[in-house]
Structure formats: structure tokens, C-alpha cells
Amino acid sequence: MDSKTNMYPDTKVVNYERIIFRDKAELVKLAKACLPPPNGLGYFFLDLRRPSTSYVIQDLAEINASTWDYFSQPYEARVQDGISEHSGEQRYSMSTIEALEFPTKELDKDCISLSLPGSLQPALEPIRRFLTVLEYVAIDIFTCLCLPADPTGNLHGVSTVRGRNLNHESALRLCFEEPTSWKKYAKHRDQAGDDIGGAEHTMGILRIMQYDAARLCWRMDCVAGEETWSDPLPPAEGCLLVNLGDGMQALTGGRYHAPVYKYIKVNNDEEGLCSFEYTLRQENWMAPHATEEASAGIIPSQIEELEIELAQVKKQKKQVEQEKGRIERDLKAGHLAFKTLKAKYRLQRRSLRSRGGCASNSTDGSEVL
User: Fold this and answer.
1) Where would one find coiled-coil regions in this protein (predicted)?
2) pLDDT of 198-210, one tens digit each?
3) Three-class secondary structure of residue 283 per DSSP
4) Are 117 and 109 in contact (CB under 8 A)?
């Protein structure tokens, strides 16, 4: 299959603080970012650079440090340490990239100490806090993209457009890219820019990511077997990357887009690269706090309606500004007329006094002798 690359497209940056307050212009931007190409991309940056939202990433340094401690262990130790004491299941995997994946139900306050490997125990509280925030962020985005639907399970058993089922758990995935220098055999040493694995898509509602280097390419188009891919997308300061999954695409009948992506080797031979991925799947798609009263989101069919409403608001704003300008001009004219009349009155008084008369207090210029 032929392929070619383009410079990464104009990725929208959505302000999370405005999303929280249901700013209509920001909701429209969010919805447009999630449309299929060429109108949207299915992914966007979520801007957290506001006092009320910057706390979302405050624990990342400690989490990444503990993630590094885990993945810097010998392979055998990683495998052994990756077994959950809570469930007995293996959480360590090494496919496209190395990862340690936890179902979110294993990270609640009653299970987290048994689920985390020893090297991650120092970051237990930061991970728990961080996961709580990520769940709220994910539900906020979901409820803004789709008005609260039937929480009894419209999504259960839904086969996605790619023929896969969504019966999976929401999960937090701690990821690591090994330094090239750690590779024992030269044939295993990928070079910077090489693909790591094949094309993938997110299984679930949406995925939230943090990464520190350009490591993802996105498929922009596929026509007659020829694929067009973006260049590796660099991270944006103070932002998390969000992309939709097959669940959201299926739920909206294809009106929203689940993009295809692939991992790219980063030129980082001396140090590993830590990152995380949180995936919201149907089990948590309606969290308890995401009630209909608290949610004021939009669905794709409302985009045009909101754009019309925004245009009307802008028109009204322009009319108000014009009216304000007219009033200010009238006030200035009135003030000038008053000053002119006052000056005329003073001149009249001086003239009358010089003749031994007296000026009237009336504004018609009549005299009282």
C-alpha cells in the first residue's frame, strides 16, 4: 500500500476551563475538532493553562519518575512486578510500546495499593488523584460532545465500525519507549522516525494522552489504497492530547471520527520516554457526577444551530456597540452644547453688568433690569 506524509495539520486547541463553563463558542470548536476529515480530525489538544485547571498535570513529574523506576528494571523484574496482587493478572505488556495497564476499578482507594508494583508505590497518591481528575475531564468532554444518553447501556454490545466490540474496561496505561542503547541486538534498534508497529485506533469512547516528544502520526486520508499521514505531531505546552475512539464513532453513527494513528520512534538514545494514556470505555461513560442537570453539551446536529445562535449574538453585540457609540457621541454633543450655552450666558452677564443691567437665569436670553 502506498503512503505519503503531510505536515501535521492545524490541530485545534480547546480550552478546558471554557468547556467547564459551557462556553458556546468553545463547544462549537470542540465539536468541529471531532468531525471526520476534511472538516475535523478526531483529535485535539486540551488546554489546561488556567489557574482553575492547571492542577490537572501537577502530579505528572512524580508519576513519570516512578514510571521510569519501573521500566528501568530488568525485563524479568518488569514481568514479575507487573502481576497485580489484587487480581493476579499480568499488567505488563510489550507490543507496540512497553506499557503497564490498569483497569480503573483496580485503582480505587481500596485496591490501588495491591494493584501497583512496588516501584510505583511512592506515586500511589499522585496516581490516584491524577486518575480522578482524568475521569472528570473525560466525562466532561463526552457530555459536551453528546447530550446525556440513556445510562442503562445503549453502548453495551455495540460493534464498532471496524467490527470490534467495546466490552472492555476503562484503563490507565503507563507507557515507556526504551532508549535505543538498551537494545541488545542491532536489528532491534529502530532509528528515529521509524514506525513502531502498525496502524492502530482507540478502542473505547476517547483517549487522553500526555507525551513529551513528537511520537504520533495520524492518517489523514486513504484513497484508492494510498494513505496520507501527518508528520509526527509535537506536544503542545500545558496541553493534553485527546482523540476519539471507535465507541464514540459508533455511538454517533460516524458523525464523529475515530482517527487511525501509528507510533514513531523518537530520537532519544540516552534516556527513555515516559508517557501515559487514559482510555474511557463504555463501563464509565456515564459517571455519577455527569447528570443531565449538570451537563449542557451538544450533539453534532446542534453545531449549525449553535453557529447561527453565535452569529446572532455577535450581531447583537455589534448593535449594542453601535448604540453605545451613538449614545457616547450624543453625550459629547450635549456636553459641548451645554458648555457653549454656559459661555454665551456668562458673556451676556458681563455685557449687561457693563451697562448696569442684570442677566436672567433663563436660557432664552431675556433680561431683568
Assistant:
1) 303-330
2) 677 788 889 998 8
3) helix
4) no
In three-state secondary structure terms, 90 is: strand
| Ramachandran category for residue 88: left, alpha or beta (phi over 0 → left; psi -120 to 50 → alpha) | left
- And the C-alpha cell for 152? 442503562
| CATH code for the structural domain at 3-298 | 2.60.120.330
- What is the strand order of the sheet 216-223 is part of? 3-6, 226-230, 216-223, 261-264, 195-200
Rg of the chain's alpha carbons, rounded to an integer?
31
In this predicted model, what pLDDT tens digit does every residue of 26-57 receive, in sequence order? 988 998 999 988 888 899 999 987 776 666 66
pTM of the model: 0.67
Q: Which residue has the cell 446572532?
A: 312
Q: How far apart are CA 35 and CA 14, in angstroms?
A: 14
* Strands 216-223, 261-264: pairing kind: antiparallel
Q: What is the mean pLDDT of residues 154-166?
A: 38
Q: Which three cell numbers stand for residue 271?
A: 534516556
DSSP 365: -
C-alpha cell at 216: 504520533
Host H or E run for residue 224: none
Question: Would you say 177 and 273 are in contact if contact means Cβ atoms under 8 Å apart?
Answer: yes
Domain extents in the chain = 3-298
Give yes or no for a contact between 280 and 204, defined as CB atoms under 8 angstroms apart: yes
